[in-house]
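Exercise: predict the fold of this chain.
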Amino acid sequence: MSKTGKIISSVLVIALLLAAVFCYFKFWWVFSDGTKTGELNSLTYTGYIFKTYEGEIILTGYGTKAGGNSVQSKNFKFSARKDVAEELQGLTGQRITVHYKEYKGVLPWRGYEKSIVDKVVSSEPIAPEQVQHSEESIFL
């Protein structure tokens, strides 16, 4: 093998290794994991080629804005595995806590979101008193 052939081979091997490291950290390395608690708002089965379960949890809390205290909410969008989605289907409208893993990139067969819910930690129905109380707080 000539000197030029060895250089080209070495550059190709290094490029392939760098691409493999990039793909690992982008798509398979878990950037963060944790739990989120809120009201399960929606869960859908969607996709063109790869059908995945996509959901949304409304996270509520108190915060401060420039005029005083207020009720704030954020939406946590996630993808879920089939077994977890089957468990979540009966919990729409309930207060749930889920465990998730967040990746830096998405893969079409894993879902549309970077956060993947892998377990339902707990769930509880929302009491009518809690709903009425939170609605009253919004208008104060």
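Check your answer against the key: The radius of gyration is 22 Å.
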